[in-house]
Design a protein that fits this description.
The chain is an alpha/beta fold. The protein contains eleven helices and ten strands. Keywords: Membrane, Transferase, Transmembrane, Transmembrane helix.
Length: 307
Protein backbone atom coordinates (compact mmCIF):
# COMPACT_ATOMS: atom_id res chain seq x y z
CA UNK A 1 0.00 0.00 0.00
CA UNK A 2 1.56 3.30 -1.11
CA UNK A 3 1.12 6.00 1.54
CA UNK A 4 0.92 9.65 0.52
CA UNK A 5 1.58 12.80 2.51
CA UNK A 6 -0.15 15.86 1.03
CA UNK A 7 1.58 19.19 1.73
CA UNK A 8 -0.50 22.37 1.33
CA UNK A 9 1.23 25.75 1.85
CA UNK A 10 -1.33 28.31 2.96
CA UNK A 11 -1.39 32.09 3.00
CA UNK A 12 -4.78 33.83 3.19
CA UNK A 13 -6.85 31.44 1.09
CA UNK A 14 -10.12 31.44 3.00
CA UNK A 15 -12.14 31.62 -0.24
CA UNK A 16 -10.60 28.50 -1.73
CA UNK A 17 -8.98 26.34 0.96
CA UNK A 18 -12.13 24.37 1.83
CA UNK A 19 -12.58 23.30 -1.81
CA UNK A 20 -8.88 22.40 -1.97
CA UNK A 21 -8.93 20.15 1.10
CA UNK A 22 -12.30 18.69 0.11
CA UNK A 23 -10.78 17.61 -3.20
CA UNK A 24 -8.14 15.69 -1.21
CA UNK A 25 -10.72 14.15 1.12
CA UNK A 26 -12.78 12.99 -1.88
CA UNK A 27 -9.95 11.02 -3.49
CA UNK A 28 -10.72 7.44 -4.54
CA UNK A 29 -7.26 6.56 -3.20
CA UNK A 30 -7.05 8.11 0.27
CA UNK A 31 -4.08 10.16 1.47
CA UNK A 32 -2.37 8.96 4.64
CA UNK A 33 -1.93 12.50 5.98
CA UNK A 34 -2.77 16.08 5.02
CA UNK A 35 -0.31 18.70 6.25
CA UNK A 36 -1.34 22.35 6.03
CA UNK A 37 1.51 24.82 6.59
CA UNK A 38 0.06 28.15 7.68
CA UNK A 39 2.56 30.72 6.43
CA UNK A 40 1.45 33.60 8.63
CA UNK A 41 -2.15 33.85 7.37
CA UNK A 42 -4.16 36.81 8.64
CA UNK A 43 -7.62 35.79 7.37
CA UNK A 44 -10.04 33.10 8.62
CA UNK A 45 -8.57 30.22 6.61
CA UNK A 46 -7.17 28.32 9.61
CA UNK A 47 -10.38 28.80 11.58
CA UNK A 48 -12.38 27.33 8.70
CA UNK A 49 -10.02 24.37 8.40
CA UNK A 50 -10.26 23.56 12.10
CA UNK A 51 -14.06 23.82 12.03
CA UNK A 52 -14.46 21.47 9.08
CA UNK A 53 -11.34 19.27 9.00
CA UNK A 54 -10.05 19.20 12.58
CA UNK A 55 -9.69 15.41 12.60
CA UNK A 56 -8.34 15.08 9.06
CA UNK A 57 -5.57 17.66 8.83
CA UNK A 58 -2.33 18.43 10.63
CA UNK A 59 -1.82 22.21 10.78
CA UNK A 60 1.65 23.67 11.26
CA UNK A 61 2.01 27.43 11.75
CA UNK A 62 4.99 29.66 11.06
CA UNK A 63 5.65 33.34 10.44
CA UNK A 64 5.29 34.55 6.86
CA UNK A 65 8.49 33.21 5.27
CA UNK A 66 7.24 32.52 1.74
CA UNK A 67 5.92 29.54 -0.19
CA UNK A 68 9.29 27.78 -0.51
CA UNK A 69 9.80 27.81 3.24
CA UNK A 70 6.23 26.57 3.76
CA UNK A 71 6.72 23.67 1.35
CA UNK A 72 10.05 22.75 2.92
CA UNK A 73 8.46 22.78 6.38
CA UNK A 74 5.65 20.51 5.21
CA UNK A 75 8.06 18.10 3.54
CA UNK A 76 10.19 17.92 6.70
CA UNK A 77 7.07 17.17 8.79
CA UNK A 78 5.84 14.45 6.41
CA UNK A 79 6.17 10.87 7.63
CA UNK A 80 5.87 9.18 4.23
CA UNK A 81 8.24 8.75 1.28
CA UNK A 82 5.76 10.02 -1.33
CA UNK A 83 4.83 13.67 -0.95
CA UNK A 84 2.17 15.32 -3.11
CA UNK A 85 2.17 19.10 -3.32
CA UNK A 86 -1.03 21.12 -3.62
CA UNK A 87 -1.43 24.89 -3.41
CA UNK A 88 -4.18 26.25 -1.20
CA UNK A 89 -6.42 27.39 -4.05
CA UNK A 90 -6.01 24.49 -6.48
CA UNK A 91 -7.92 21.22 -6.65
CA UNK A 92 -7.55 17.58 -7.70
CA UNK A 93 -9.93 15.33 -9.58
CA UNK A 94 -10.95 12.36 -7.43
CA UNK A 95 -8.73 10.00 -9.48
CA UNK A 96 -5.51 12.01 -8.96
CA UNK A 97 -3.87 10.01 -6.15
CA UNK A 98 -4.96 6.72 -7.70
CA UNK A 99 -3.23 7.70 -10.95
CA UNK A 100 -0.05 8.71 -9.10
CA UNK A 101 -0.10 5.40 -7.21
CA UNK A 102 -0.33 3.50 -10.50
CA UNK A 103 2.60 5.50 -11.89
CA UNK A 104 4.66 4.57 -8.83
CA UNK A 105 3.80 0.89 -9.25
CA UNK A 106 4.64 0.97 -12.96
CA UNK A 107 7.81 3.08 -12.65
CA UNK A 108 9.24 2.56 -9.15
CA UNK A 109 12.68 3.92 -10.07
CA UNK A 110 11.40 7.40 -10.99
CA UNK A 111 12.03 10.12 -8.40
CA UNK A 112 9.07 12.35 -9.24
CA UNK A 113 5.63 11.85 -10.72
CA UNK A 114 2.98 14.07 -12.26
CA UNK A 115 -0.28 14.13 -14.17
CA UNK A 116 -1.30 16.72 -16.73
CA UNK A 117 -3.45 19.57 -15.47
CA UNK A 118 -6.08 22.12 -16.36
CA UNK A 119 -6.06 25.87 -15.83
CA UNK A 120 -8.69 28.27 -14.60
CA UNK A 121 -7.78 31.46 -16.45
CA UNK A 122 -8.42 35.09 -15.55
CA UNK A 123 -11.94 34.87 -17.03
CA UNK A 124 -12.81 31.77 -15.00
CA UNK A 125 -12.65 29.40 -17.98
CA UNK A 126 -11.21 25.89 -17.74
CA UNK A 127 -8.40 25.19 -20.21
CA UNK A 128 -6.35 22.04 -20.57
CA UNK A 129 -2.61 22.52 -20.83
CA UNK A 130 -1.42 21.94 -24.38
CA UNK A 131 0.96 18.99 -24.58
CA UNK A 132 2.61 17.23 -27.50
CA UNK A 133 1.56 13.82 -26.18
CA UNK A 134 -0.93 11.16 -27.08
CA UNK A 135 -4.01 11.45 -24.85
CA UNK A 136 -3.84 9.26 -21.72
CA UNK A 137 -0.15 8.46 -22.29
CA UNK A 138 1.78 7.09 -19.32
CA UNK A 139 5.50 6.63 -19.17
CA UNK A 140 8.98 7.84 -18.30
CA UNK A 141 9.83 11.07 -20.13
CA UNK A 142 13.32 10.73 -21.54
CA UNK A 143 15.28 14.00 -21.64
CA UNK A 144 12.83 15.67 -19.27
CA UNK A 145 14.28 19.19 -19.67
CA UNK A 146 13.92 19.20 -23.46
CA UNK A 147 10.31 18.01 -23.21
CA UNK A 148 9.60 20.56 -20.47
CA UNK A 149 11.05 23.34 -22.65
CA UNK A 150 8.62 22.47 -25.45
CA UNK A 151 5.69 21.88 -23.08
CA UNK A 152 5.55 24.63 -20.45
CA UNK A 153 2.24 23.22 -19.27
CA UNK A 154 3.83 19.89 -18.40
CA UNK A 155 3.65 20.12 -14.61
CA UNK A 156 3.26 22.54 -11.72
CA UNK A 157 3.32 22.69 -7.93
CA UNK A 158 -0.16 21.18 -7.64
CA UNK A 159 0.35 18.22 -9.97
CA UNK A 160 3.63 16.80 -8.67
CA UNK A 161 4.51 14.00 -6.27
CA UNK A 162 8.14 13.79 -5.14
CA UNK A 163 10.16 11.28 -3.16
CA UNK A 164 11.23 12.60 0.22
CA UNK A 165 14.51 10.71 -0.20
CA UNK A 166 15.34 12.89 -3.23
CA UNK A 167 16.27 15.55 -0.64
CA UNK A 168 15.36 18.38 -2.97
CA UNK A 169 14.82 21.71 -1.19
CA UNK A 170 12.75 24.60 -2.52
CA UNK A 171 15.02 27.68 -2.68
CA UNK A 172 14.17 30.33 -0.09
CA UNK A 173 13.94 34.06 -0.68
CA UNK A 174 13.01 33.54 -4.33
CA UNK A 175 9.85 34.84 -5.98
CA UNK A 176 10.35 34.03 -9.66
CA UNK A 177 10.47 30.40 -10.78
CA UNK A 178 11.48 28.83 -7.48
CA UNK A 179 9.48 25.71 -8.36
CA UNK A 180 11.17 25.48 -11.77
CA UNK A 181 14.53 25.17 -10.03
CA UNK A 182 13.21 22.11 -8.19
CA UNK A 183 11.81 20.48 -11.34
CA UNK A 184 15.12 21.08 -13.13
CA UNK A 185 17.13 19.62 -10.27
CA UNK A 186 14.88 16.57 -10.07
CA UNK A 187 15.13 16.16 -13.84
CA UNK A 188 18.93 16.12 -13.56
CA UNK A 189 18.95 13.73 -10.59
CA UNK A 190 16.49 11.19 -11.98
CA UNK A 191 13.45 10.61 -14.15
CA UNK A 192 9.84 11.80 -14.28
CA UNK A 193 6.96 9.35 -14.65
CA UNK A 194 4.09 11.18 -16.30
CA UNK A 195 0.41 10.65 -17.04
CA UNK A 196 -1.28 12.81 -19.67
CA UNK A 197 -4.62 12.58 -17.83
CA UNK A 198 -5.54 16.09 -16.66
CA UNK A 199 -6.36 15.43 -13.01
CA UNK A 200 -5.20 18.64 -11.34
CA UNK A 201 -6.57 22.17 -11.73
CA UNK A 202 -4.40 25.27 -11.30
CA UNK A 203 -5.68 28.84 -10.91
CA UNK A 204 -3.76 31.31 -13.07
CA UNK A 205 -5.27 34.34 -11.35
CA UNK A 206 -4.79 33.18 -7.78
CA UNK A 207 -4.35 35.93 -5.20
CA UNK A 208 -2.15 35.96 -2.12
CA UNK A 209 0.54 33.58 -3.29
CA UNK A 210 2.55 32.85 -0.14
CA UNK A 211 5.51 35.19 -0.52
CA UNK A 212 7.34 37.94 1.31
CA UNK A 213 9.52 38.97 -1.64
CA UNK A 214 9.45 42.31 -3.47
CA UNK A 215 9.98 41.43 -7.13
CA UNK A 216 11.56 44.77 -8.07
CA UNK A 217 15.14 44.07 -9.08
CA UNK A 218 14.71 40.32 -8.70
CA UNK A 219 16.42 37.73 -10.87
CA UNK A 220 14.50 34.56 -11.87
CA UNK A 221 15.62 31.58 -9.82
CA UNK A 222 16.33 29.26 -12.81
CA UNK A 223 19.00 31.64 -14.15
CA UNK A 224 20.79 31.78 -10.79
CA UNK A 225 20.50 28.00 -10.45
CA UNK A 226 22.02 27.55 -13.91
CA UNK A 227 25.04 29.74 -13.23
CA UNK A 228 25.59 28.25 -9.78
CA UNK A 229 25.65 24.68 -11.14
CA UNK A 230 26.98 25.37 -14.64
CA UNK A 231 30.25 23.44 -14.37
CA UNK A 232 28.50 20.32 -13.06
CA UNK A 233 25.69 20.67 -15.58
CA UNK A 234 28.20 20.71 -18.43
CA UNK A 235 28.92 17.07 -17.59
CA UNK A 236 25.28 16.15 -18.28
CA UNK A 237 24.50 14.69 -21.70
CA UNK A 238 21.42 16.93 -21.83
CA UNK A 239 23.33 20.15 -21.06
CA UNK A 240 22.27 21.85 -24.30
CA UNK A 241 18.63 21.16 -23.47
CA UNK A 242 19.09 22.68 -20.02
CA UNK A 243 20.73 25.76 -21.50
CA UNK A 244 17.92 26.19 -24.05
CA UNK A 245 15.34 25.84 -21.27
CA UNK A 246 17.01 28.57 -19.21
CA UNK A 247 17.16 30.97 -22.15
CA UNK A 248 13.54 30.28 -23.09
CA UNK A 249 12.43 30.85 -19.50
CA UNK A 250 14.35 34.12 -19.20
CA UNK A 251 12.98 35.38 -22.51
CA UNK A 252 9.38 34.60 -21.47
CA UNK A 253 9.85 36.04 -17.97
CA UNK A 254 11.39 39.28 -19.22
CA UNK A 255 9.10 40.00 -22.16
CA UNK A 256 5.94 38.34 -20.82
CA UNK A 257 6.35 39.45 -17.22
CA UNK A 258 8.80 42.23 -16.43
CA UNK A 259 7.98 44.33 -19.50
CA UNK A 260 4.21 44.05 -18.95
CA UNK A 261 4.53 45.13 -15.32
CA UNK A 262 7.07 47.86 -16.03
CA UNK A 263 9.62 46.07 -13.87
CA UNK A 264 12.71 47.45 -15.61
CA UNK A 265 14.89 47.13 -12.50
CA UNK A 266 14.59 43.34 -12.79
CA UNK A 267 15.50 43.50 -16.49
CA UNK A 268 18.60 45.48 -15.54
CA UNK A 269 19.47 42.93 -12.84
CA UNK A 270 19.16 40.03 -15.33
CA UNK A 271 21.40 41.75 -17.88
CA UNK A 272 23.98 42.59 -15.21
CA UNK A 273 24.16 38.98 -14.02
CA UNK A 274 24.51 37.67 -17.57
CA UNK A 275 27.37 40.08 -18.23
CA UNK A 276 29.10 38.97 -15.03
CA UNK A 277 29.02 35.41 -16.39
CA UNK A 278 30.10 36.45 -19.90
CA UNK A 279 26.81 35.19 -21.26
CA UNK A 280 26.11 36.89 -24.56
CA UNK A 281 22.43 36.02 -24.44
CA UNK A 282 21.97 39.38 -22.73
CA UNK A 283 21.84 40.99 -26.20
CA UNK A 284 18.43 39.31 -26.62
CA UNK A 285 17.22 41.01 -23.44
CA UNK A 286 18.31 44.59 -24.25
CA UNK A 287 15.38 45.28 -26.64
CA UNK A 288 13.02 44.83 -23.67
CA UNK A 289 13.75 48.45 -22.76
CA UNK A 290 12.40 49.56 -26.13
CA UNK A 291 9.22 47.50 -26.54
CA UNK A 292 6.43 49.90 -27.63
CA UNK A 293 3.31 50.13 -25.50
CA UNK A 294 1.24 48.96 -28.48
CA UNK A 295 3.02 45.59 -28.39
CA UNK A 296 2.30 44.88 -24.73
CA UNK A 297 -1.13 43.34 -25.32
CA UNK A 298 0.33 41.17 -28.08
CA UNK A 299 3.00 39.93 -25.66
CA UNK A 300 0.33 39.28 -23.02
CA UNK A 301 -1.66 37.19 -25.51
CA UNK A 302 1.50 35.23 -26.45
CA UNK A 303 2.19 34.60 -22.77
CA UNK A 304 -1.28 33.15 -22.29
CA UNK A 305 -0.84 30.90 -25.34
CA UNK A 306 2.49 29.64 -23.97
CA UNK A 307 0.85 28.90 -20.65
Amino acid sequence: MIKFSVVIPLYNKEKDIIDTITSVMNQDYKADEIIVVDDGSTDNAIKLIKEKFQDNTYVVSQENLGVSSARNRGISEAKNEYICLLDGDDIWEKEFLEEIAQLIELYPKAIFYSTAHKYINEEGNYLKAKLSFVENKRGILENFVEIFRKNYGLLNSSSVCIRKSSEVVFPKNEDKGEDLCVWLELGVKGSLAFSAKALSTYRLNASNRSSTIDDKGSIPCPLKWFYKNKEELKKEKNYKSIQKFIYSNIFITVYGGFVLSGNYSSITAVIKLMKEHNDWFFVCIYPAYLVPISFLEVIKKMRREIR
